[in-house]
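Technical note accompanying the year-one report. For the benefit of new consortium partners, we illustrate the data format agreed upon in the data management plan: each record pairs a sequence with a structure-token string. No post-processing was applied to the example shown here.
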Amino acid sequence: MDAEHDDAELRFLNYYRCDRCEHEWTDEWSCMCDDDCPECGARHMSPYKSDDLGEDAP
């Protein structure tokens, strides 16, 4: 797969808050999936909110 194809699959902006260090971050994914904290490395943080990036498309 090429980068252009991969970008087309990004559909959700997920909002995360780490249970361990309380760091907050966002990340784009093709689903509402768990992520690892970029600050302390805690694993499997679930998003507390997700925005469908396709909703605002004309």
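Partners are asked to follow this layout when depositing records. Residues 3-52 form one domain.
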